[in-house]
Amino acid sequence: MTTRLPEEIVPDNDQTRARAEHLAKIQALVGNAYPNKFERSRLTGGAEGEDTITSVVGAYRKHEPEVKEGGRPTPEQLEEANARLDGAVVRVSGRLATPPRVMGKAAFVHLSDGKERLQIYVRRQEAVAVSNDSLRPVEEEESGWKLFQLLDHGDFVGVEGKLFVTKTGEMSVHVGTIQFLSKALLPMPDKLHGISDPEIRQRQRYADLIASSLKVKTDEGDDDARHGLSTREVFELRSKLVTAMRRHLDDHGYIEVETPMLSPIASGAAARPFTTHHNALDIDLYLRIAPELYLKRLLVGGFERVYELNRNFRNEGISTRHNPEFTMLEFYTAYKDVNWMMDFCEEMLRHTIQTTTGSTTVRFEGQELDFGHRLERLSMKEAIARHLPPLFKEISEPFHISWLDDDLRVREMIALNDAHVIEEASLRSLMTMKIEHGMDEDEAVEEYLDAGKKIDIDKLWSEVRSSSSRLLGHDKSATPLLIQQLFEEFAEQHLFDPTFITDFPKAISPLSKASPDDPAVAERFELYVAGMEVANGFSELNDPAEQLERFEEQTRQREGGDEEAMQMDEDYVKALAYGMPPAAGIGIGIDRLTMLLTNRRSIRDVILFPHMRPRPTSEAQAEADEEQTSDS
RNA sequence: GCACCCGUGGCGCAAUGGUAGCGCAAACGGCUUUUAACCGUUGGGUUGUAGGUUCGAAUCCUACCGGGUGCACCA
Fold first, then answer.
1. Is A73 exposed, middle or buried (0-12, 13-18, 19+ CB in 10 A)?
2. How many angstroms separate the CA of A197 from the C1' of B6?
3. What is the rounded CA–CA span in Å between residue A549 and residue A527?
4. pLDDT value at position A437?
5. Which nucleotide is nearest to A195 (CA to C1')?
6. How far is the CA of A190 from the C1' of B47 (A)?
7. DSSP secondary-structure letter at A617?
8. Which of chain A's residues 364-423 bind strand B, using a 7 Å CB cutoff?
9. Which A residues 552-571 have CB within 7 Å of strand B?
10. Which nucleotide is nearest to A631 (CA to C1')?
């Protein structure tokens, strides 16, 4: 008798009790309920030559007779189909994908290998159970049938039998022997609805994956139908994407490298790092926020094309677009600049998306994303000008893009936007107050909207203008940050079609080269798709003296309180002093790209085990309850 | 960190202040080509936790736990 698992792991209810009882009876019938292996036949060349359900279905399903929806094949068709199957005997294994359908003296059930399903047919007098101790038939009348009665939805079995086609035209295995392989002590997810609770889907991804492969396909528009792909398919696609990207880079002369994830300095990006501690050395280490500076050291060392595809860690907020660890592909190419990199990135995306999805267009949130043509390239200032809200167009003087070159004007635009946001907020809180004091909600909302229309932009604008002297007093060097702020405020969310944003302010790009045409502009781009930043690339700064200055500037900002300003890395500057060839580099967010290709709007849906607050242990929970009771 | 929303048998959901219900799953019985199998019978709940308001709470209030979404931060 097996030990009963603790309640936290396997709750005690009618479902689990039935399964535990079945397990005990199975052990009495076939011995060891958890055998070490099951040898499968070798007719269709699945994994390592063995027959998987997927390979058997792939090889033989074509013999199923063609039948109209809901119809049945004719006796002639059946005879023909069975002749073509020629009594092929397969040994296959899988999970019971449905509860057994027992009909007196015969039964059907589907087995799943996670991807495909294959029906097995068990007859009372014929099926023989195989003992897991002796590997010989169990010496008992109707042993296979007895074993079958003890099977639950989700158990693993191996069967051997002839392939045939049933009356309804479905290819099935006519079971000769059946071997028990493993027990599902916990009930399977609902066969029709799967798991809808996002918490369980993400915390217990295994259950979500089971649900996604066992779910019965219906005509109803369910979750999968809306998204197009099941959970399993999302991660299959992700894997294909990563493989395609590796292959593309390998084919273009890149070598894959691995650089430290633990580092005494967290640099190469603007982000807050995780801290950890090395006991033997007694030093604090950081989890890397980007591999960038190590990869460029390799350019110094003589590798002309390198890439790394792995995790970065950033100690920041969690959202639908951010996970504390995320996968980034970074690669560097000697003797190339930012323009080459945009072309290469575009070509690489086109090619890998085509390979993984079969098309260069992607459906995301009901809209079409087209990677098949040359992607739009827009300077940051052009993007701001294009997506400027009406607020700025209504004011007395028509907006002109040259405003973005004027420090004072940029400040005024920020101030105007702030003033407007504050105005809106106060209206909103007024509305809330009115509702709290008993005003009809619809009425309050209407009043709020009316008031919103009446916000006097010209008045706000003149107020902003009159405080110009105060605005002028501000540090001019902050302007690039404000430009970026305007971009994020107005433009970013509207960049749905894949768009390269170019001409970043140099001051916010401490690792990239300045443009030969404009010393204030960096040769840098970011790729935006569906309002998300997906890639970030630039001509790599390789002048050690200038790099040192840029680091020093970052250090000043750090000391001024900017926790995310980049950390000085002296050894990196030293590497540059050995000479780094001109080069272009890029980082591509794999999670976000996967979101686009799988039509998922949350990053948690494309990461197998996204980070969540740990569940309190049962003792901790009891303690917390205890505390509450004693408090009150 | 802030705001809003959610938490009901194993799973998916219903019940808006008045007897906690339905489908799937489970148990038992019937059925030798079914497939969201079918037919009959049965069991299963301290409504996330703790407190409060009320004659009466799944429903209203407070706090806590967990989750989702949006904002902030960021890629």
1. buried
2. 10
3. 28
4. 56
5. B11
6. 21
7. P
8. none
9. 564
10. B50
Whether A274 and A285 have beta carbons less than 8 Å apart is answered as: no
Instruction: Identify the residue whose Cα has the smallest distance to the C1' of B44.
Output: A14
List pLDDT tens digits, range A486-536. Answer: 898 888 888 999 999 999 999 889 999 999 999 989 999 999 999 999 999
Question: Taking a C-beta distance cutoff of 8 angstroms, is the pair A41, A51 a contact?
Answer: yes
State, as a whole number of angstroms, the distance between the CA of A437 and the C1' of B54.
24
Instruction: Characterize the bridge pairing of strands A521-529 and A532-539.
Output: antiparallel
Strand order across the beta sheet in which A283-287 lies: A262-263, A283-287, A275-278
- Amino acid identity of residue A23, one-letter, is L
pLDDT, tens digit, for every residue of A131-158?
Answer: 999 999 999 999 999 999 999 999 999 9
User: Chain A, 312-351: which CBs lie within 7 Å of strand B?
Assistant: 314, 316-324, 326
d(CA A328, CA A330): 6
3-state secondary structure A563-612: CCCCCCCHHHHHHHHCCCCCEEEEEEEHHHHHHHHHCCCCHHHCCCCCCC
pLDDT score recorded for residue A439? 59
User: In whole angstroms, what is the distance from residue A7 CA to residue A3 CA?
Assistant: 12
Is A424 (CB) below 7 Å from strand B?
A: no
A201: nearest nucleotide, CA–C1' criterion:
B67
DSSP reduced 3-state for A423: helix
How long is the CA A318 to C1' B46 vector, in angstroms?
36
Asked if strand B contacts A265 at the CB level, meaning under 7 A, the answer is: no
Please report, to the nearest 10 degrees, the dihedral formed by the alpha carbons of residues A375, A380, A386, A390 taken in order. Answer: 140
CB atoms within 10 A of CB A66: 9
Q: Which nucleotide is nearest to A615 (CA to C1')?
A: B66
What secondary structure letter does DSSP report for A61? Answer: G
Residue A574's nearest CA partner among A540, A548, A541 is A548
A208: its two tokens: 């979500």
Closest-lying nucleotide for A627 based on CA to C1': B50
Q: For residue A475, how many other CB atoms are within 10 A of its CB? A: 9
Taking the C1' atom of every nucleotide in all shown strands and the CA of A200, the nearest one is B67
Q: What is the DSSP track for A129-145?
A: EB-TTTSSB-SSTTHHH
Regions of chain A where pLDDT drops below 50: 1, 219-225, 618-619, 625-632
Question: Which nucleotides of strand B are protein-proximal, with an atom < 7 A from a CB?
Answer: 1, 9-13, 23-27, 30-38, 43-44, 49-51, 63-75
Coil, helix or strand for A505?
Answer: strand
pLDDT at A238: 95
Amino acid identity at A205: R
CA distances from A409 to A238, A383, A467 (A): 45, 17, 12
